[in-house]
Amino acid sequence: MHAEIYTDGVDEIMVSGTVVRVDLFSLSPTERDANNFPKKAFRQRLIFSAEGFANSVEVMQNALQGLVDAGVIKRNQPRGASGNPETGSGGERGNTTTSSAQRSPNASTNFR
Q1: Is the pLDDT assigned to residue 105 strictly greater than 90?
Q2: What CA dihedral angle connects 63, 64, 69 and 70, to 10 degrees?
Q3: Which of 4, 49, 61, 73 gives the lowest tally of CB atoms within 10 Å of its CB?
Q4: What is the mean pLDDT of the chain?
């Protein structure tokens, strides 16, 4: 039997030369931040070659598309796709505070 690891998401990705390190986190069941939300707790580090990481991203994108197609996940439209022009200069996006504030604080930062 192989050990399984649960993760709430990816906290950080570090690239050093041809090595990619991906830190996984889960939300602490006991520790809280100043806003009373669970703190992120480091769980595991995945270390890839650059090629292995690129292949893994492709596999995850295919899995994500499958979840979207099945209706499990609904992706947000890019700011410019709804006909509203992007605000700011240099291609910056408009203020996203409203959509972030409406999301659960336990939602993965990978889908914000």
Answers
A1: no
A2: 70
A3: 4
A4: 79
Please return the burial class of 20, using the count of CB atoms within 10 Å of its CB with bins 0-12, 13-18 and 19+: buried
pLDDT of residue 95: 40
Query: Which residues on adjacent β-strands are paired with residue 44?
Result: 24
Q: What is the pTM of this model?
A: 0.62
CA–CA gap between residue 39 and residue 109 (Å, rounded): 13
- CA dist., res. 86 & res. 94, Å (int): 6
Q: Which residue has the tokens 């050990």?
A: 3
Joined together, the tokens standing for residue 26 give 């889960």
Q: Are 90 and 96 in contact (CB under 8 A)?
A: no
Contact 22, 48 (CB under 8 A): yes
HSE at residue 96, side-chain half, CA atoms within 13 A, is 11
- The amino acid occupying position 16 is S
- What is d(CA 100, CA 112) in angstroms, rounded to the nearest whole number? 7
